[in-house]
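Data availability (excerpt). The following record was deposited with the supplementary files.
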Amino acid sequence: MQPAPDISGYRKHWAERFGTAPFLPMSRAEMQLLGWDSCDVIIVTGDAYVDHPSFGMAIVGRVLEAQGFRVGIIAQPDWHSAEAFTALGPPNLFFGITAGNMDSMVNRYTAERRIRSDDAYTPGGEGGKRPDRSVIVYAQRAREAYRDVPIVIGGIEASLRRIAHFDYWSEKVRRSVLLDAKADMLVYGNGERQICELAHRVAAGEALHDITDMRGTVFARKATPPDWIEIDSTHLDAPGPLNPPVDPYAMAAATPDAAVASPNTTAAAPAPCASASPAVDGGEKVVRFVRRVKNADRERSVIRMPSHEAVAADPVLYAHASRILHLESNPGNARALVQRHGDTDVWLNPPPIPLTMKEMDWVYERAYARAPHPFYGAANIPAYKMIRFSVAIQRGCFGGCTFCSITEHEGRIIQSRSEDSVLREIEAVRDKVPGFTGVISDLGGPTANMYRLACKSREIESACRRPSCVFPGVCPNLNTDHAPLIRLYRRARALPGIKKILIASGVRYDLAIESPEYVKELAQHHTGGYLKIAPEALAEGPLSKMMKPGVGAYDRFKELFDRYSKEAGKEQYLIPYFIAAHPGTSDQDMLDLALWLKRNSFRADQVQAFLPGPMATATAMYHSGKNPLKRVTRASEAVLIPKGLKVRRLHKAFLRYHDANNWPLLREALRRMGRADLIGNGRRQLIPAYQPAGTGGSPEGRRAAPARPFRTQHTGLPQLPRAPRGRRGPKPV
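Predicted structure:
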């Protein structure tokens, strides 16, 4: 993996002379106060504008400002006409369009496809301030406002929809959002490196549609350039009954069955390293690869994936495409990907080179006001309230959880800040943020404890194609030393004016037990009574499909946490989170989990059903019934999928076994499963036989509850409070 130019090393654009704005302007009046006659880049976002490094539009805006560009913000515009998109005039370079810190469909709908009444990224938490599929709608309106201005889309919604993807809300495979938005370019992942290069190149006179060599970007083209070597993805991982090849670059002849299963090969002309085989079963010409692709040729090789039309029609091909996409995600060895959509190719360049520590420090130490724009007055923006006293110390996650979008967006290589940079930001929070009482609410990131963890060998890291460094066990090549993080914690809490440093990001407990000293530090100094932890499931079926560790790692962590809490004289508890209805989960798995929860006196107030987000590996399982963690063939492992509203509600009901409204559903299920013995008022039974008045949705069989409320055998643990999941909080774009 070749190093990339330092993003802070560009020669500044001429508009640097205007200096730093207190807030990026949202109106012409603000532009005039700054002395601007126009904006170079205008960012359109589905979130309220909060000038804080946990909000994507603020990071991108401030990074471009530091490059000398004038950046304006259009936040949560009225999308019913193009008028709101003309508020700042046309940008000189391009519109940058994002749905915000969340996919707009996830933001607006629950896992049961019910519309949400609130929006944490909107003043007052008001819902309905952004459209469905915001990136598409905003791009269309921006194009209506200024037809000739280039449009660049980015953020998590664009990142996760950069290729043909299964859309849970419409239950179909949609095209790349690049085409639906009619954008000129899509920037995926954390986009600072791409957006800096792009702005400087466009400012220097390059046409945006001519920029095709930039990593971390997606664009449309009519055909593969003649000097590129095209590799058929089905030769790398064939979705048919095929013996696995010895080497991915030295392909043996495929079987006729595999050739028939390769619908996109007809469009591929024989590459310089390939020979054309005779037609097979109906006239298809299949490209065979008969020699290795030399290292010198890798930069000019592209993998052709099954077309949008093919994956939309065949769920097995969709699972295959998902597997290829995830195998080609390491910046050190990923190749370009191409996928046909009708008569157009959607071309995905390899992922961007991760930011260095110096670059991370530079990004997070821009001139953020660390507050919402004054336009909002005293309005409460819930997402800001949650993170205003938090500090991000890292990006990325090598856990590879199949239901999570962090790896697909931020990558699995950890990008960490220096200790000094983190400490400077803590001091800035202490000195500048109104209402600070001395408590830092979080020092973390996508996970709490991956700070400065990496592969022991750069060469191995660059060659690795594993989707996770910690599943099925912690890789022996992974450095799990938590000493730098422990040192950071100690330095942070020693700062004057800092009373407490809390850790709210999710702790990866299978990593934490590799460093008992870290667990001790966490329990004795950085836990405020409760620490959230995410086993997600207990049974092997769902855990193997989630790529999560077994319950043994959780038990070991709990043992350490309880011991060190007791040594410090503290009564502290773990808050476990679980996902209902994840691929691989049976009714019996959920029953066993409910019994475990009761046995351990847990009453979860907040539970979540699996939501198939675009591009996630678990979503490919949900749609195809296949397991893309292994080679996908038509005869490969079938995955049990809890589909349908009734079964999804049942799995959630098992997690909330203590809620009387769920008891009728659970009684019906227990009788069907032959476990009616778990219905009764005994301590060893899951739910009572009686139904309290006013609960359960049906008056039949109800009677008044006894004077003493039904309780499980209690060990002193109170009912678990509501607590937000760390990885669901605001994340940099």
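Summary of structural features: The first strand starts at residue 41 and ends at 45.
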